[in-house]
Amino acid sequence: MSDLSGALLIVALAVLAGAVGGLLLSGRRRPSAARPEFAPAAVPATPASPPSPAPPPALPATGATDLPRQLHELAFGIPQQPASTDPKDRAVAAAVTRLLSAPVLGADYAPRRPMLLPKLVQAVNDDDVSGRELSRLIAQDPALAASLLGIANSAFYRVSSKPVESIDRAVALVGTHGLRSLIAAALLQPVFKSSAVHFRRFPDVTWLHTQFSAAAAEAYAALVADSDPFAGQLLGLLMGLGTIMVFRAATDEYTKAALPADAGTVAELVEQQAPGVARRIAQEWELSERILRALEEQRPATSATALSPLGASLRFGRYCGAIAVLEAMGVLHEETGVAALGSAGYGRTECQRILARLHKRAKA
Q1: Could you give the angle at the alpha carbon of 320 between the alpha carbons of 244 and 279, nearest 5°?
Q2: How many C-beta atoms lie closer than 10 Å to residue 234's C-beta?
C-alpha cells in the first residue's frame, strides 16, 4: 500500500467522525433514524501517530488585499509564480489530470469504509453513553488513544495548563462535543504529515488551514447560513483532503519524471482539481446531495451569488481559515485580518465573532 493509500484510509476514519465539535456549538443528541451523511463502514484501520513538525518561520506583516498570494507563498516557501509553460511541466500536469479524472479512482485514491468509527460517533452522539464508556471505547484502539492524547495536549486544543495524561481526563476536560474535534484531528492529522521531497512546508500549512476552515465553516453554517453545522465542518475536512491529495499526486508525478517540481504548476492543479477530488470522495462515500453540491460550488468559476447555504459556509470557512493561518504564522496582524474579512463582504457581526474565536486559536 502506498503512502497516499494509507493516508486515505486514515482520512476515511476522519470522514466518519463527521459530527465534529466546533468553536461555538455544544450539546449531544440521541441517534436519529434519518439517513446519515455517511454510510456504515466495513474495514478496520489503525491511524498513525500524529506528527509534531516545527511551524514555518513567521513572515513580515503585509496588506489585506492579496490573501491567496500570501497563503501560497507561506505554503510553498517561495514567491508566487504562474504555472510553467515548459512542455515537461505541462506533461506532468496532464498526467495528474488524467489520474484524478479517470472514470474510477485507482485503489491508491479510493478510501474504503472502516468499522471502528461509526460505533464511536454513535456513542458520542448518544445522551445515554457516559464519559467512562466513551473512554473505554477509545481505549480499544491504542494508536487512536495515543494520537488523541497527543492532540489534546497540543496548543490548538489544550484547555488547561496541566498535561492531559488519560482518556478519562480528556473526556472530562473537553466534553463529548469537544471530543468530536479531538477524534477528527487525531485521525486526520497523519494524512498531512510532511513526507514529500518537494515543498515540505505545504502539508503543515494545509493541515492548519483545514482545521481553521472546518471550524469557521461549521460556525458560519450555524450562525449565518441557517444550515447544518456538522455538514459545514465535514465539508472543511473534505476540502482539506482534496487539497492534500492533489498536492501529493502532483509531487509524485514530478518524482516519477525525475523533475524538480514547479510550484506554480502544483498550485494550479490544486486550485483546479481539489474541489472535484473532494466531491468524488464524498460521492464514493454516498454522502448527501447537498454535500456534493457544496463541493461542486467550490470550483473557481462559481459565483458567490450561486452558492447554496452549505457552499457559502465552506467558501467563508476557507477564506476565514486563510486569515487565521496567516495571523498564526505572523503574516497578518489581527486588525488587518478583520479588515480583510470585511472587504470580502463578510462584515456582519456574526462573521466578526467567528474570526475573533479563530484569533484565540491563532495566538496559540
Answers
A1: 40
A2: 30
Look at the block and give the residue holding cell 484510509.
Answer: 9
Residue 30 CB contacts under 8 Å (≥ 6 apart), including other chains = 125, 126, 127, 128
The SS3 of residue 329 is coil
Residue type, 229: P
CATH numbers and ranges of domains, the chain? 3-45+55-363 (1.10.3210.10)
Separation of alpha carbons 282 and 238, rounded Å: 8
Exposed (0-12), middle (13-18) or buried (19+): which is 53, by Cβ within 10 Å?
Answer: middle
Give the range among 80-89, 162-171, 229-238, 273-282 with minimum mean pLDDT. 162-171
- Closest-CA residue to 95 (of 281, 249, 276, 299): 249
pLDDT at residue 324, rounded to an integer: 94
Q: Is the dihedral of CA 197, 81, 84, 106 positive or negative?
A: positive
First to last CA, the chain: 36
